[in-house]
Amino acid sequence: MTPLAGLVDTSIAPDLSMTPLATENGQADPRDWPPNLRDKTVTVPPHPLKLKPAGNAYTSRENLRISLGSLTALTDELIIQTMEFLDGISLLKIGATCKALFAFASLEELWKSLFIGSVQPTSMTWQGTWRSTYLRVEASQTSRVCCTNLFSDVLHRPFFCANVPITPYTVNIPTGNAITQLPNLTPAEFSANWTDKPFILTEPVREWPVYKDWSTKALLEKYGHVKFRAEAVDWPLSDYVQYMQNNTDESPLYLFDRAFVEKMRLKVGRADHGEYWAPECFGEDLFGVLGDQRPDSRWLIVGPERSGSTFHKDPNATSAWNAVLRGSKYWIMFPSSPSFPPPPGVFVSEDQSEVTSPLSIAEWLITFHAEARRTRGCLEGVCTEGEVLHVPSGWWHLVVNLSPAIAITQNFIPRKHLPAALDFLKDKPNQVSGFPVGVADPFATFVQQLQQKHPHILEEALATMKTRKEGKKRKWDDLVKGNVESPADSGFNFVFGTGDDDDDIP
Fold it and tell me: Rounded to the nearest 5°, which phi and psi values hold at 33?
């Protein structure tokens, strides 16, 4: 059993041979990393409380866990779940009973939940950790208890994932996996050849005023007092930057604000001499016909190194572009269709409404990255300052900041993907998101506006939807009636759907 055995949920990571070892001094042996990382020197510092992964208990003569008394009968997971019901005072009291419980009661996720669930103060000083910030205690006044002989994957895993280097996973991208880079495209080139393919453009963003003017310092000077949404909290930008520059989170909070244009009073559009505009190659965004009734479509993204998004598809069957203004981002992407499984380590419900994956980006990289690179359809790339990446409708993608980053992203519907978007709005209403409260029927509202402004485009899209559904039904009927050859007889695998079409068979 390796020192990290049990560090990752074995129900979704059965092959622990790919997981790096954390030794007692915090060193990770490169020989135990995936093959593409073995030439890298990987060092993870010791845990601040000196506790270690559970496997180290097998070589230790002492174990602090015996000090838990009757609580020894509980698993580490159950102890943490029980502590989730406690308030801050109770956590402090139970943490004062013994070293082991001090370690459990110091878990950052407990204090993060308490802070986010509390009434947010009008002014906040970030103290480097959620515990210190919640208690309003300076980092220098925080208690440090040595828990040398405590061995727990539950307590060590978040720290390990927060400190394991992620850059080695983003280099030496296999040639066949590399996302195509281009200077620019015309709308005709995009429509004809690129609507279903990820790519990176290196020229369009460099024309934007925000590319030339924005930096963390510049944004602080102008918008430091403005509150932005960072996942579950609304903080002034000045508070978020404090957090961004000094945190130890496994999954750092990601500033992801949908109302930034209004909050920052930005002009958008080249014709209006705006601060930025959509790259012209993407053409008209057909969701634009909805005006104020359209779903959320644009976001300001700011985050520290290691922040990002775990695997997901963009909402409402939209495509997207993501423009990096400062920093750099690593992307790994997979197409979605019945002939392609979800990315390794990602589990999807039958109707694709629920997605289960490892808790953090680092955990996924540690456990599944090597397998992912060998998986059919995998594409990878690094998008740097002044570049914009295209995410086609339906593609799975994970993205992580390799350095503190500022970006703008926008979702859109190109003409070629209108049938898929209409089909999604019509057949999956429980998964539709982002529309204003007053829009009771997004599909009917969208069709009505398209009929008024682009009747020929709508007619073409509805005809395509009808043809696709009839084709699927014929395939289903042929299979039921035995008119389709078996794979053994025909030498091919029969699957429903092609390309980015991931609809269910009727």
Answer: -90, 165
Residues with Cβ < 8 Å from 388, sequence gap 6 or more?
200, 201, 204, 205, 279, 321, 322, 323, 324
Alpha helices per DSSP H over 428-494? 442-453, 455-481, 487-490
Residue 66: other Cβ atoms inside 10 A: 11
| pLDDT at site 478 | 62
CA dist 148 and 181 (Å) reads 49
Cβ neighbourhood burial of 67 (10 Å; 0-12, 13-18, 19+): middle
Instruction: Give me the count of residues in the chain.
Output: 506
Name residue 455's beta-bridge partners. none
Please choose, from the candidates 62, 52, 50, the residue with its C-alpha nearest in 3D space to the C-alpha of residue 3.
Answer: 52
Token readout for 218 is: 């510049």
On whether the CB atoms of residues 396 and 342 are closer than 8 A, the answer is yes
Phi-psi region of 279 (alpha: psi -120 to 50; beta: other; left: phi over 0): beta
Q: Can you give the pLDDT at residue 34?
A: 52
Could you count the other beta carbons within 10 Å of the beta carbon of residue 499? 13
Instruction: Please state, in angstroms and rounded to a whole number, the distance separating the CA atoms of residues 353 and 17.
Output: 32
User: Among 418, 413, 412, 426, which Cα is nearest to 463's?
Assistant: 418
Q: What is the dihedral of CA 19, 177, 297, 280, to 10 degrees?
A: 160
pLDDT of residue 473: 60
Average pLDDT across each block of 10 residues of the chain; the chain has 506 residues. List them in order.
Answer: 34 34 41 49 86 95 94 96 97 96 97 89 86 90 91 96 94 96 98 97 98 97 97 95 96 96 97 95 96 96 97 96 98 90 90 80 95 96 98 97 98 97 95 95 97 96 89 61 51 36 37
Phi, psi of 337 (to 5 degrees): -170, 170
In terms of DSSP bridges, do strands 180-182 and 199-201 run parallel, antiparallel, or are they unpaired?
Answer: parallel
Cα separation, 298 vs 412, in Å, equals: 9
CA atoms in the 13 A half-sphere facing the CB of 384: 3
Would you say the C-alpha torsion 381, 384, 389, 391 has a positive or negative sign? positive
Structure tokens at 349: 């419900």
Give bridge partners of residue 347 from the DSSP assignment.
356
- Please state, in angstroms and rounded to a whole number, the distance separating the CA atoms of residues 332 and 311: 9
